[in-house]
Amino acid sequence: MKILLVVNPSASSVTARTRIVIQKALSADHRLEVAATTRRGHATRLAQSAAKDGMDVVVVLGGDGTLNEAANGLVSTDTALAALPGGSTNVFARTLGLPDDPVEATGALLDAVEAASIRRIGLGSINQRHFLFHAGVGFDAAVVEQVERRGGLLKRFAGHPLFIVAAVDTWLRHYDHRSQTFRVTTRVLGDESDPHPSTGVPGVFTVFLNTDPYTYLGTRGLSLAPDTTLDDPLAAVTFRSLSPARLLPAVAASLGLTRSSPTANPAVNFRSDVTEATVVASRAVPWQVDGDYLGTATELVVRYHPDALDLVVPLASAAFN
Hints:
Layout: E1 2-7, H1 16-27, E2 31-36, H2 42-52, E3 57-62, H3 64-74, E4 80-85, H4 91-95, H5 102-114, E5 118-126, E6 129-131, E7 134-138, H6 139-150, H7 152-158, H8 160-174, E8 182-188, E9 201-203, E10 205-209, E11 215-217, E12 220-222, E13 234-239, H9 244-254, E14 268-289, E15 292-312
Parallel strand pairs: 1-2, 1-3, 3-4
Antiparallel strand pairs: 5-6, 5-15, 7-10, 7-14, 8-9, 8-14, 10-13, 11-12, 13-14, 14-15
Helix pairs in contact: 1-5, 2-3, 6-8
Protein backbone atom coordinates (compact mmCIF):
# COMPACT_ATOMS: atom_id res chain seq x y z
CA MET A 1 0.00 0.00 0.00
CA LYS A 2 1.23 3.50 -0.83
CA ILE A 3 1.14 5.81 2.18
CA LEU A 4 1.98 9.48 2.62
CA LEU A 5 2.84 10.49 6.19
CA VAL A 6 2.12 14.20 6.71
CA VAL A 7 3.90 15.52 9.80
CA ASN A 8 3.35 18.82 11.54
CA PRO A 9 6.71 19.27 13.31
CA SER A 10 5.29 22.09 15.43
CA ALA A 11 2.49 19.99 16.92
CA SER A 12 2.50 19.47 20.67
CA SER A 13 3.27 15.74 20.80
CA VAL A 14 5.56 15.46 17.79
CA THR A 15 9.21 14.79 18.63
CA ALA A 16 12.07 13.64 16.42
CA ARG A 17 12.16 10.26 18.18
CA THR A 18 8.40 9.73 17.83
CA ARG A 19 8.54 10.61 14.16
CA ILE A 20 11.36 8.14 13.47
CA VAL A 21 9.61 5.29 15.30
CA ILE A 22 6.37 5.91 13.40
CA GLN A 23 8.15 6.14 10.04
CA LYS A 24 9.85 2.79 10.64
CA ALA A 25 6.59 1.13 11.64
CA LEU A 26 4.67 2.44 8.62
CA SER A 27 7.45 1.60 6.14
CA ALA A 28 7.91 -1.99 7.34
CA ASP A 29 5.17 -3.38 5.07
CA HIS A 30 4.17 -0.38 2.99
CA ARG A 31 5.67 2.03 0.49
CA LEU A 32 6.05 5.21 2.54
CA GLU A 33 6.66 8.83 1.65
CA VAL A 34 7.03 11.56 4.28
CA ALA A 35 6.28 15.28 4.05
CA ALA A 36 6.45 17.96 6.75
CA THR A 37 4.12 20.95 6.81
CA THR A 38 5.74 24.37 6.82
CA ARG A 39 2.80 26.79 6.86
CA ARG A 40 -0.93 27.05 7.30
CA GLY A 41 -2.83 25.29 4.52
CA HIS A 42 0.17 23.21 3.49
CA ALA A 43 -1.43 19.91 4.54
CA THR A 44 -4.33 20.52 2.15
CA ARG A 45 -1.99 20.86 -0.81
CA LEU A 46 0.05 17.83 0.25
CA ALA A 47 -3.12 15.73 0.51
CA GLN A 48 -4.38 16.93 -2.87
CA SER A 49 -1.08 15.97 -4.49
CA ALA A 50 -1.16 12.57 -2.77
CA ALA A 51 -4.62 11.86 -4.19
CA LYS A 52 -3.53 12.90 -7.69
CA ASP A 53 -0.47 10.62 -7.38
CA GLY A 54 -2.62 7.63 -6.48
CA MET A 55 -1.64 7.30 -2.84
CA ASP A 56 -3.86 4.86 -0.94
CA VAL A 57 -3.72 6.55 2.46
CA VAL A 58 -2.66 9.91 3.87
CA VAL A 59 -1.63 9.51 7.51
CA VAL A 60 -1.53 12.75 9.50
CA LEU A 61 0.73 13.10 12.54
CA GLY A 62 -0.35 16.41 14.00
CA GLY A 63 -3.20 18.18 15.73
CA ASP A 64 -6.82 18.54 14.70
CA GLY A 65 -6.04 21.58 12.55
CA THR A 66 -3.54 19.69 10.39
CA LEU A 67 -5.94 16.75 10.15
CA ASN A 68 -8.72 19.09 9.03
CA GLU A 69 -6.53 20.59 6.32
CA ALA A 70 -5.66 17.13 4.97
CA ALA A 71 -9.32 16.10 5.02
CA ASN A 72 -10.20 19.14 2.91
CA GLY A 73 -7.60 18.03 0.38
CA LEU A 74 -9.06 14.51 0.16
CA VAL A 75 -12.79 15.25 -0.12
CA SER A 76 -14.39 13.34 -3.03
CA THR A 77 -11.20 11.37 -3.77
CA ASP A 78 -10.41 7.66 -3.34
CA THR A 79 -7.47 8.31 -1.02
CA ALA A 80 -8.24 7.54 2.62
CA LEU A 81 -7.42 9.72 5.61
CA ALA A 82 -5.84 8.29 8.78
CA ALA A 83 -5.23 10.14 12.05
CA LEU A 84 -2.35 9.90 14.49
CA PRO A 85 -2.57 12.07 17.64
CA GLY A 86 0.12 14.73 17.59
CA GLY A 87 -1.59 17.78 19.05
CA SER A 88 -2.62 18.94 22.50
CA THR A 89 -6.21 17.63 22.41
CA ASN A 90 -6.57 15.29 19.38
CA VAL A 91 -10.37 15.35 19.47
CA PHE A 92 -10.99 13.37 16.29
CA ALA A 93 -8.35 10.70 16.88
CA ARG A 94 -9.66 10.12 20.41
CA THR A 95 -13.26 10.06 19.19
CA LEU A 96 -12.29 7.27 16.80
CA GLY A 97 -10.91 5.33 19.76
CA LEU A 98 -7.19 5.69 19.06
CA PRO A 99 -4.75 5.71 21.99
CA ASP A 100 -3.50 9.19 22.87
CA ASP A 101 0.11 8.04 22.52
CA PRO A 102 1.07 8.40 18.83
CA VAL A 103 3.30 5.31 18.79
CA GLU A 104 0.57 3.13 20.30
CA ALA A 105 -1.92 4.69 17.89
CA THR A 106 0.32 3.70 14.98
CA GLY A 107 -0.04 0.04 15.97
CA ALA A 108 -3.83 0.38 16.04
CA LEU A 109 -3.73 2.18 12.70
CA LEU A 110 -1.66 -0.58 11.08
CA ASP A 111 -4.10 -3.19 12.39
CA ALA A 112 -6.95 -1.24 10.78
CA VAL A 113 -5.09 -0.96 7.46
CA GLU A 114 -4.30 -4.69 7.50
CA ALA A 115 -7.99 -5.46 8.09
CA ALA A 116 -9.04 -2.99 5.35
CA SER A 117 -11.12 -1.13 7.95
CA ILE A 118 -11.91 1.88 5.76
CA ARG A 119 -15.32 3.55 5.73
CA ARG A 120 -16.82 6.33 3.66
CA ILE A 121 -18.04 9.05 6.02
CA GLY A 122 -20.02 12.24 5.76
CA LEU A 123 -18.58 15.65 6.57
CA GLY A 124 -19.99 19.02 7.44
CA SER A 125 -18.98 22.25 5.76
CA ILE A 126 -19.29 25.88 6.79
CA ASN A 127 -18.82 28.50 4.07
CA GLN A 128 -17.33 25.67 1.96
CA ARG A 129 -14.69 24.67 4.54
CA HIS A 130 -15.24 21.04 5.51
CA PHE A 131 -15.05 19.88 9.11
CA LEU A 132 -14.50 16.46 10.64
CA PHE A 133 -16.04 16.87 14.08
CA HIS A 134 -17.37 20.39 14.63
CA ALA A 135 -17.65 24.02 13.58
CA GLY A 136 -18.35 26.76 16.11
CA VAL A 137 -19.73 30.27 15.75
CA GLY A 138 -19.46 32.92 18.44
CA PHE A 139 -17.97 32.34 21.87
CA ASP A 140 -15.87 29.22 21.27
CA ALA A 141 -14.35 30.73 18.14
CA ALA A 142 -13.40 33.79 20.17
CA VAL A 143 -11.70 31.46 22.68
CA VAL A 144 -9.79 29.71 19.88
CA GLU A 145 -8.65 33.10 18.59
CA GLN A 146 -7.25 34.00 22.02
CA VAL A 147 -5.47 30.63 22.28
CA GLU A 148 -3.90 31.11 18.86
CA ARG A 149 -2.74 34.60 19.83
CA ARG A 150 -0.93 33.12 22.81
CA GLY A 151 0.10 30.14 20.63
CA GLY A 152 3.57 28.78 20.05
CA LEU A 153 5.41 27.19 22.96
CA LEU A 154 2.71 28.18 25.45
CA LYS A 155 0.10 26.14 23.56
CA ARG A 156 2.56 23.27 23.16
CA PHE A 157 3.26 22.93 26.88
CA ALA A 158 0.24 24.45 28.64
CA GLY A 159 -2.35 22.40 26.76
CA HIS A 160 -5.81 22.20 28.33
CA PRO A 161 -5.13 24.71 31.16
CA LEU A 162 -4.42 27.32 28.50
CA PHE A 163 -7.85 26.73 26.94
CA ILE A 164 -9.57 27.05 30.32
CA VAL A 165 -7.73 30.32 31.10
CA ALA A 166 -8.49 31.62 27.60
CA ALA A 167 -12.18 30.71 27.97
CA VAL A 168 -12.50 32.66 31.23
CA ASP A 169 -10.53 35.62 29.87
CA THR A 170 -12.61 35.65 26.67
CA TRP A 171 -15.87 35.56 28.63
CA LEU A 172 -14.70 38.46 30.82
CA ARG A 173 -12.93 40.70 28.29
CA HIS A 174 -13.02 39.60 24.66
CA TYR A 175 -16.58 38.58 23.76
CA ASP A 176 -19.99 40.15 24.23
CA HIS A 177 -21.70 37.20 25.91
CA ARG A 178 -24.81 39.21 26.76
CA SER A 179 -26.05 39.99 23.25
CA GLN A 180 -27.79 37.50 20.96
CA THR A 181 -26.01 38.74 17.86
CA PHE A 182 -27.14 36.05 15.39
CA ARG A 183 -29.97 33.72 14.43
CA VAL A 184 -29.63 30.07 13.41
CA THR A 185 -32.06 28.47 10.99
CA THR A 186 -31.85 24.75 10.27
CA ARG A 187 -33.23 22.23 7.80
CA VAL A 188 -33.40 18.62 8.95
CA LEU A 189 -33.38 15.32 7.07
CA GLY A 190 -36.57 14.92 5.04
CA ASP A 191 -37.60 18.59 5.39
CA GLU A 192 -37.88 20.42 2.08
CA SER A 193 -39.06 23.74 3.50
CA ASP A 194 -36.98 26.90 3.20
CA PRO A 195 -37.09 28.63 6.61
CA HIS A 196 -36.61 32.39 6.74
CA PRO A 197 -33.72 33.71 8.90
CA SER A 198 -36.19 35.75 10.95
CA THR A 199 -37.65 32.48 12.27
CA GLY A 200 -34.28 31.25 13.46
CA VAL A 201 -33.10 30.62 16.99
CA PRO A 202 -31.31 33.63 18.54
CA GLY A 203 -27.94 32.79 20.04
CA VAL A 204 -24.61 33.90 21.45
CA PHE A 205 -22.83 30.64 20.64
CA THR A 206 -23.68 27.78 18.31
CA VAL A 207 -21.86 24.62 17.31
CA PHE A 208 -22.51 22.14 14.51
CA LEU A 209 -21.32 18.64 15.29
CA ASN A 210 -20.45 15.79 12.93
CA THR A 211 -19.70 13.53 15.89
CA ASP A 212 -19.46 13.62 19.67
CA PRO A 213 -17.86 14.67 22.04
CA TYR A 214 -17.43 18.34 21.25
CA THR A 215 -13.96 18.35 22.84
CA TYR A 216 -12.01 16.90 25.76
CA LEU A 217 -10.95 18.37 29.08
CA GLY A 218 -8.14 16.10 30.22
CA THR A 219 -9.45 12.56 29.89
CA ARG A 220 -13.11 13.54 30.09
CA GLY A 221 -15.17 14.24 26.99
CA LEU A 222 -17.39 17.32 26.85
CA SER A 223 -20.49 15.84 25.27
CA LEU A 224 -23.05 18.22 23.76
CA ALA A 225 -24.85 15.76 21.46
CA PRO A 226 -24.24 12.23 22.81
CA ASP A 227 -26.16 10.38 20.07
CA THR A 228 -24.34 12.01 17.15
CA THR A 229 -22.07 9.64 15.23
CA LEU A 230 -20.29 9.57 11.88
CA ASP A 231 -23.26 7.68 10.44
CA ASP A 232 -25.63 10.61 11.04
CA PRO A 233 -26.20 14.10 9.64
CA LEU A 234 -25.15 17.03 11.81
CA ALA A 235 -26.37 18.15 15.20
CA ALA A 236 -26.84 21.86 15.93
CA VAL A 237 -26.53 23.13 19.50
CA THR A 238 -27.30 26.83 20.08
CA PHE A 239 -26.82 28.61 23.40
CA ARG A 240 -29.24 31.48 23.89
CA SER A 241 -27.40 32.65 27.01
CA LEU A 242 -23.91 32.37 28.48
CA SER A 243 -24.79 33.68 31.92
CA PRO A 244 -23.14 31.58 34.67
CA ALA A 245 -26.55 30.44 35.92
CA ARG A 246 -27.33 28.99 32.47
CA LEU A 247 -23.86 28.00 31.27
CA LEU A 248 -22.42 26.18 34.29
CA PRO A 249 -25.25 23.60 34.55
CA ALA A 250 -24.90 22.88 30.82
CA VAL A 251 -21.13 22.40 31.15
CA ALA A 252 -21.58 20.14 34.18
CA ALA A 253 -24.10 18.02 32.28
CA SER A 254 -21.80 17.88 29.24
CA LEU A 255 -18.98 16.57 31.41
CA GLY A 256 -21.24 13.91 32.91
CA LEU A 257 -21.10 15.47 36.37
CA THR A 258 -24.91 15.51 36.67
CA ARG A 259 -27.69 13.26 35.45
CA SER A 260 -29.15 16.02 33.34
CA SER A 261 -28.62 16.33 29.59
CA PRO A 262 -27.09 19.58 28.26
CA THR A 263 -29.87 19.71 25.68
CA ALA A 264 -32.47 19.79 28.50
CA ASN A 265 -31.14 23.18 29.60
CA PRO A 266 -33.70 25.91 28.78
CA ALA A 267 -30.90 28.12 27.45
CA VAL A 268 -29.92 25.50 24.85
CA ASN A 269 -31.64 24.72 21.55
CA PHE A 270 -30.84 21.31 20.08
CA ARG A 271 -31.55 19.96 16.58
CA SER A 272 -30.48 16.59 15.22
CA ASP A 273 -30.30 15.25 11.65
CA VAL A 274 -29.42 18.71 10.34
CA THR A 275 -28.62 18.76 6.62
CA GLU A 276 -28.37 22.53 6.16
CA ALA A 277 -28.23 25.62 8.35
CA THR A 278 -27.70 29.35 8.06
CA VAL A 279 -26.26 31.72 10.64
CA VAL A 280 -27.13 35.38 10.05
CA ALA A 281 -25.55 37.94 12.39
CA SER A 282 -26.27 41.60 13.07
CA ARG A 283 -22.51 42.19 13.19
CA ALA A 284 -19.46 40.13 12.29
CA VAL A 285 -19.00 37.12 14.59
CA PRO A 286 -15.97 34.81 14.89
CA TRP A 287 -16.07 31.25 13.59
CA GLN A 288 -13.80 28.21 13.84
CA VAL A 289 -13.52 24.79 12.24
CA ASP A 290 -12.13 21.74 14.10
CA GLY A 291 -10.36 24.08 16.50
CA ASP A 292 -8.87 26.46 13.90
CA TYR A 293 -9.93 30.12 13.99
CA LEU A 294 -10.97 31.32 10.52
CA GLY A 295 -11.99 34.94 11.07
CA THR A 296 -15.35 36.71 11.28
CA ALA A 297 -18.48 36.80 9.13
CA THR A 298 -22.05 38.09 9.15
CA GLU A 299 -23.48 35.09 7.28
CA LEU A 300 -22.42 31.45 7.39
CA VAL A 301 -23.91 28.54 5.46
CA VAL A 302 -23.57 25.04 6.89
CA ARG A 303 -24.17 21.85 4.88
CA TYR A 304 -23.91 18.12 5.45
CA HIS A 305 -22.13 16.11 2.75
CA PRO A 306 -22.77 12.35 2.90
CA ASP A 307 -20.14 9.92 1.58
CA ALA A 308 -17.52 12.65 1.32
CA LEU A 309 -14.33 10.99 2.56
CA ASP A 310 -12.69 7.58 3.03
CA LEU A 311 -11.46 7.16 6.61
CA VAL A 312 -9.23 4.52 8.16
CA VAL A 313 -11.20 3.41 11.22
CA PRO A 314 -9.64 1.64 14.22
CA LEU A 315 -11.10 -1.79 14.88
CA ALA A 316 -14.07 -1.69 17.27
CA SER A 317 -14.36 2.11 17.01
CA ALA A 318 -17.40 3.55 18.79
CA ALA A 319 -17.70 6.54 16.45
CA PHE A 320 -20.40 4.83 14.39
CA ASN A 321 -23.91 3.51 15.09
